[in-house]
């Protein structure tokens, strides 16, 4: 205990505040007055006189001099003298009466006993001066006072943790004293933040002066911050974008599964959505990446057919794989017959527009209005446009109106306002009714659905909508989809609607994209030249061990579906381009993943047939827009289609392969995991070629963005 008090005496006192100095002076003067009234008795010392007697002898004559009374000199003498007295009282072992007035503890057993009795009888009176000091110092946040609160030997973080632990334990921390029981919770609280509770004084009882106790009392008496209700905190918006879940196409063995069948896909929605994600500083959701849509977003100069009798022509190339030296790529490019604008049939279009509350965002309804304005400007005077909106209930905004009355159509578009829920099913019914009302025989009858993708009122299950659209498709009314916005986009449903409506699915994220989709590629979007287009590739087991179709995960078909004209497939519009890429593994390549079959052999080997020069055989089946009977186009794939190096392949082929690598990389495909974004950028840069619209330059920037965001 003596060591503790010595340590206390050696401590540097904090810089006192003005209120603290005033209180100290008051205590000193009070002690002086009491000493004058009790001069005959000694208190707390073995000496025959009080400790202050000498000082009093000097003090009284001076103060009693008339020439000092009421003068400024008296004030100058009183203040320093009082400060000196206060310092002497704190440095020496104080009498019991002084202990009672200050609340300090000495090793004097009598003092301890009297102090405990005083606190037990009148705790509130004993603490009143401390509370007053704390109240006076409430607005004074001096560094010295904060240092006084922190126990010696503890860091600021440790002190805060100690106080926090005391708070969590109900506001009381038991203080262990030598030979005494636990004291009141107020007394315990004072102990928590006292300097005397440093590690070198563990287990001992020591209390700070009144000023320190007041500070701690103030701090512990302050209410803890009330928790902010969760609903008042700005929560990040929930991302409700929905995509079709489809596993990446696996590597297949030619020996057991030599045939690959899939539907044509000319949609481009995935590329635009990926672009919007990257431009927002986010890596896209892997499920939003459909590699074939990214590849087919770009215009390629594939050779087209000579006439409309053959609606398209296939161009096949075989080249090395840039991300795997032990595999090769079979690249198939198809270009559709390009209908001259003057020869395009009349169009009967119904704009089915989502004006629900969720469309009230700059990249939704306002952008949608601009997109349809561009399309109206592209149409011919004899074409007709109708407008149906849906939000809570479906309503007809514009009856079938000829483009020659353009002002009326544009005015109807401009008056659209968002609000309400999404009665998508009712909107579809109203749109089909208007399309049927203005039906053009031999012409284009199409509904253009523009939405953020949510149908939350009415019979809106995917199966119900799919059945409705498939039935209407047979009557010659097709459905295309334009998606807008993020956070609520139901991409999975949009794909279902477009695929079953013999239409395309595009995603409009900018007005430039609206210009590309609805103006520059209007013919491809609106005027079909072939429907139910299917691809089937048979691989030669003598040449090819394995294969993998890149993309088209949501477009795969069963082998028997190829010849079944009742099975729906994709459509190709005027001037459309379709690209498909297979990664193949030659026989004997170290990249082969599947072991040879133990039992049996490929049919050609069993028959002892000579090795064929064919690598694969491509078949394309399609229907004319007004026919229900399919036709067949076949093309063999041989070494005559091959190039020895990647550089020998054309610019369009190399660029499309770079896009394919990028899409697989974003999707997380294992085959390209070791192929860095930098290599993709180099491949695409070297194949940029002529880029009149800047699409390829934009792609290069997206690769750079993805590289940066991925941390590669």
Describe the structure.
With 712 residues, the protein is of the alpha+beta class. It has 3 domains: 2-221, no CATH class; 252-339 and 528-596 and 607-710, Gamma-adaptin ear (GAE) domain (Immunoglobulin-like); 344-503, Rossmann fold, CATH 3.40.50. The chain has helices at residues 2-10, 18-37, 53-64, 72-91, 96-102, 109-121, 123-136, 143-149, 156-168, 185-192, 210-221, 269-279, 291-295, 365-378, 406-414, 424-437, 462-473, 491-500, 511-520, 522-526, 603-606, 651-667, 677-686, 695-710; strands at residues 252-253, 259-263, 312-321, 324-336, 347-354, 384-391, 393-402, 444-451, 478-484, 505-508, 528-539, 544-549, 570-573, 577-586, 614-623, 630-638. The strands form 3 sheets. Strands 7-6-5-8-9-10 form a 6-stranded mixed β-sheet, sandwiched between helices. Strands 1-12-14-4-3 form a 5-stranded antiparallel β-sheet. Strands 2, 11, 13, 15 and 16 form a 5-stranded antiparallel β-sheet that branches. Strand 9 (478-484), helix 18 and strand 10 form a beta-alpha-beta unit. Helix 17 packs parallel to helix 18 (491-500). The longest helix is centred in the first third of the chain and has 20 residues, at 18-37. The two termini are 64 Å apart.
């Amino acid at each position: 205990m003596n060591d503790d008090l010595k340590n206390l005496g050696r401590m540097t006192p904090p810089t006192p505040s003005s209120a603290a100095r005033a209180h100290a002076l008051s205590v000193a003067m009070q002690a002086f007055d009491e000493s004058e009234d009790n001069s005959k008795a000694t208190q707390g010392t073995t000496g025959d006189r009080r400790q202050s007697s000498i000082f009093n002898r000097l003090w009284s004559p001076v103060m009693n001099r008339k020439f000092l009374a009421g003068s400024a000199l008296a004030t100058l003498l009183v203040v320093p003298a009082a400060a000196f007295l206060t310092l002497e009282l704190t440095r020496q072992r104080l009498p019991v009466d002084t202990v009672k007035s200050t609340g300090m503890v000495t090793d004097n057993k009598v003092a301890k006993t009297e102090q405990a009795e005083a606190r037990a009888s009148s705790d509130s009176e004993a603490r009143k001066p401390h509370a007053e000091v704390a109240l006076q110092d409430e607005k004074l946040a001096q560094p010295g006072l904060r240092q006084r609160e922190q126990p010696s030997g503890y860091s600021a973080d440790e002190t805060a943790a100690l106080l926090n632990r005391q708070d969590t334990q109900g506001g009381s921390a038991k203080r262990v004293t030598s030979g005494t029981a636990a004291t009141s919770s107020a007394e315990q609280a004072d102990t928590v933040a006292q300097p005397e509770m440093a590690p070198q004084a563990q287990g001992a009882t020591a209390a700070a002066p009144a000023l320190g106790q007041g500070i701690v009392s103030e701090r512990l008496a302050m209410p803890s911050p009330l928790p902010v209700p969760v609903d008042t905190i700005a929560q990040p918006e929930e991302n409700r974008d929905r995509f079709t879940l489809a596993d990446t196409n696996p590597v297949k063995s030619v020996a057991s599964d030599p045939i690959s069948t899939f539907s044509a896909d000319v949609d481009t929605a995935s590329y635009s959505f990926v672009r919007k994600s990257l431009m927002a500083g986010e890596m896209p959701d892997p499920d939003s990446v459909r590699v074939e849509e990214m590849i087919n977003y770009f215009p390629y100069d594939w050779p087209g057919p000579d006439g409309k009798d053959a609606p398209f022509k296939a161009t096949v190339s075989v080249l090395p794989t840039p991300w795997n030296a032990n595999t090769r790529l079979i690249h198939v490019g198809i270009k559709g017959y390009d209908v001259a604008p003057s020869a395009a049939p009349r169009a009967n279009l119904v704009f089915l527009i989502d004006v629900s509350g969720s469309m009230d965002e700059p990249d939704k309804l306002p952008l949608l209005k601009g997109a349809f304005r561009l399309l109206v400007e592209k149409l011919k005077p004899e074409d007709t446009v109708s407008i149906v909106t849906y939000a809570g209930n479906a309503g007809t905004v514009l009856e079938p109106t000829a483009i020659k009355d353009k002002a009326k159509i544009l005015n109807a578009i401009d008056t659209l306002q968002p609000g309400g829920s999404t009665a998508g099913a009712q909107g579809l019914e109203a749109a089909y009714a208007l399309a049927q009302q203005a039906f053009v025989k031999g012409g284009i009858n199409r509904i253009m659905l523009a939405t953020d993708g949510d149908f939350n009122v009415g019979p809106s299950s995917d199966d119900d909508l799919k059945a409705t659209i498939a039935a209407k498709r047979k009557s010659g009314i097709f459905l295309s989809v334009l998606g807008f916005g993020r956070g609520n986009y139901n991409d999975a449903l949009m794909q279902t609607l477009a695929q079953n409506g013999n239409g395309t699915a595009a995603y409009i994220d900018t007005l430039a994209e609206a210009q590309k989709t609805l103006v520059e590629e209007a013919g491809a979007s609106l005027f079909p030249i072939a429907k139910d287009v299917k691809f089937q590739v048979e691989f030669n087991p003598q040449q090819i061990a394995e294969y993998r179709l890149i993309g088209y995960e949501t477009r795969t078909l069963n082998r028997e579906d190829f010849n079944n004209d009742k099975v729906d497939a994709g459509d190709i519009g005027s001037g459309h381009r379709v690209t498909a890429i297979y990664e193949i593994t030659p026989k004997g390549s170290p990249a082969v993943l599947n072991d040879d079959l133990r039992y049996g052999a490929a049919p050609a080997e069993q028959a002892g047939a000579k090795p064929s020069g064919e690598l694969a055989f491509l078949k394309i089946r399609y229907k004319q827009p007004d026919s229900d009977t399919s036709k067949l186009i076949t093309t063999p794939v041989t070494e005559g289609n091959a190039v020895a190096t990647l550089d020998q392949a054309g610019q369009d082929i190399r660029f499309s392969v770079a896009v394919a690598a990028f899409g697989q990389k974003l999707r997380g495909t294992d085959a390209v995991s070791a192929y860095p974004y930098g290599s993709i950028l180099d491949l695409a840069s070297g194949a940029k070629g002529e880029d009149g619209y800047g699409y390829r330059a934009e792609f290069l920037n997206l690769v750079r963005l993805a590289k940066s965001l991925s941390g590669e």
